[in-house]
Every structure is written in structure tokens, then in C-alpha cells.
Amino acid sequence: MTGPIADAIRLMTAALRMGGKIMACGNGGSAADSQHFAAELLNRFERERAPLAAIALSTDTSTLTSIANDYHYDQVFAKQVYALGKQNDVLLAISTSGNSPNVLTAIAAAHERGVRVVALTGKGGGKMAAALAGDDIHLCVPAGKTARIQEIHLLTLHCLCDGIDTLLLGDPPQ
Question: What span, in angstroms and rounded, lies between the C-alpha atoms of 167 and 159?
């Protein structure tokens, strides 16, 4: 996964340098991973730096429940991407199976808004693999068990954070 991870780091760093933000979404454990990733960027990872623009789309319960109630649960992330997404942004779409309907709908919304997508999946990528555009990046864990996929997702997210910090700040002091 090193090549796609490096590509994702470069894409995310470029987006942040151009004034864009990273929006992250997922369900269950993937929602927790989305929040963890956004927190590492907004606050800091391992080094002191200025806050970076990131948001987990799974954190606002009033927004999530109103969209799910008034429309459909498939729309909970997509409506936020439509409202907040713009060119130079990146959507980090996380799903261990690659088949989460609301994450798939968010990917479609991202494409409509000109937002690039980094997909973090497992199990061959599921439906998300086919939903990605040619300039999107797919980080697919080569595993079939959800627990193993989630463990590698966390490692991958930390690699992304470390890589972004390295590109923005240079190599860490020894």
C-alpha cells in the first residue's frame, strides 16, 4: 500500500496548501477513525504545528439525525459534502467493506462538487472501488476480516498524518 499512501499524502498536503480541507466520513468504527484523523490534523499529530483544516462528517448528531429523518440515511454525508465541499478539498471515505451506501453517496457528491476522493477500504474495495474516478486514490487493505482491516486503517491514518506533517514541516529532528 506504500505507493497509494504516498499519493494520498501528496494529494492531501497539496489540498491543504491550496486552502482546501479534508472531510472524512465512515460508519461505526470507521466514523471513529474519521474523527480520530480529523482531530490529529486540527490539533496536532506528533509535532507542534498550525492547525490544519479537517472535519469529520460523522460528529454533528443534529445534522445527521435531521438528514436521516427528513431524507434518508444514505444522504447523511452527501448533503454535508454538497454544502461544505469545494475544489481543492479532499474527501476521505472510509468503509471496511467498501459497500456502505451513505459513503458511496458521499463519493458521488464529492465528484459532483469537484472534490477528490481518497477511499480507505478492505475486502477488495467493494462497490467503492468501482465508484472511484480516475484521479481518486484507493487505499485497499489486502484483508478480509473486519478487525484486521480496522487495525490497518488506523496505521494507515497515522501514516497519512505523519506524511502530511513531513511534507509541511520537513523531516522531524533526530
Answer: 12
Q: Give the 3-state secondary structure of residue 85.
A: coil
Provide long-range contacts, Cβ within 8 A and 24+ apart, for 132-135: 132/107
The beta-strand segments (E) located in 111-169 are 116-121, 137-140
- The count of other CB atoms within 10 Å of the CB of residue 78 is 26
Element (H, E) at 63: helix 61-70
Domain tally, the chain: 1
User: What pTM value is reported for the model?
Assistant: 0.97
Where residue 136 sits, what CATH number does that domain have?
3.40.50.10490
Give the range of the structural domain holding residue 149, as residue numbers without chain letter. 2-169
Q: Is there a domain that residue 109 lies in?
A: yes
Q: Per-residue pLDDT tens for 98-154?
A: 999 999 999 999 999 999 999 999 999 999 999 999 999 999 999 999 999 999 999
**Structure-derived torsion over alpha carbons of residues 135, 115, 120, 99, reported in degrees to the nearest 10:** -100
The answer to whether residues 37 and 56 touch, using CB atoms and an 8 Å cutoff, is yes
